[in-house]
Amino acid sequence: AGSKLREVFDKINNLLSGKSVQTEGQTVSVTQHPQGLEFVCYKLAEKFVKHGEGEVSFHHDSAFPIAVVLSGIWELHPRVGDIFLAHLHKKCPYSVPFYPARKEGTSMEEYQRMLGYEVHDSKVEEQDHFLKRMSGMIRLYAAIIQLRWPYGNRQGAHPHGLSYGWRWLAQMLNLEPLADVTAMLLLDFLEVCGNALMKQYGIQFWKTMFFIQKSYIPRIEAVTSSGQMGCLSRLKNFVQKCLRAEEIPLPKGILTPSFWRT
């Protein structure tokens, strides 16, 4: 509910503003320790990324309430946003976007960590689980860049708005595609903020969609084996549908004005 989200936002904002906050039966304040504020900013940013790789990866709709709170906090407390991006880029290099290359002397285990895989006791996580986590983080990022906290003063620009999404898309399409990962990330990104990008960039956006269909999808196909076609087929269908309808659908779970009255 909108009212619940406001409570969450106010509590986080109060904590970061140095006010006393009740949590788990005790009163806490960042003024209790010289590094209190830095610690809270760090842990909070880390927590938002964890929401992306956990909650959002399983429940796509949850990207929007989480993102709108972070967007508002980012506006008032830019340090949280900076640390959030650092955590996000480390956990999901594709959010830069960047495909790390394996350097000489780097062990396979270390390289897999650089690619975003979780490695425990030399065991690498399953590909499906890895893709799900990356998907959740990209969806959260795509939601953040288009949302603003509705109760802010709105004087300044969004601290990390749609221009960053436009840049992400352009840079992504300049990279050589990877099997599995590229198709999934593009689809996630376009499903979540394609509508917002379409409204903002108009004809330029449609030229990009046409480029994806004509040039980029064939390049993804060239590196994709027959067993990895699922994501690619979904991306193909999505782009085709949108170009035919000349419309990008609103993302599922977007927060409507009526949500804030709940």
From TrEMBL:
Pfam hit, one: GLE1
InterPro entries the UniProt entry points to: GLE1, GLE1-like_sf
One Gene Ontology term of the molecular function aspect: inositol hexakisphosphate binding
Keywords, alphabetical: Coiled coil, Cytoplasm, mRNA transport, Nuclear pore complex, Nucleus, Protein transport, Translocation, Transport
Gene Ontology terms: cellular component: cytoplasm; nuclear pore cytoplasmic filaments
A Gene Ontology BP annotation from the UniProt entry: poly(A)+ mRNA export from nucleus
Primary localisation category: cytoplasm
Subcellular location(s) of the protein: Cytoplasm; Nucleus, Nuclear pore complex
Similarity annotation: Belongs to the GLE1 family.
UniProt function note: Required for the export of mRNAs containing poly(A) tails from the nucleus into the cytoplasm. May be involved in the terminal step of the mRNA transport through the nuclear pore complex (NPC).
The protein, known as: mRNA export factor GLE1
Protein source organism: Emberiza fucata
Organism placement in taxonomy: Eukaryota, Metazoa, Chordata, Craniata, Vertebrata
Gene: Gle1
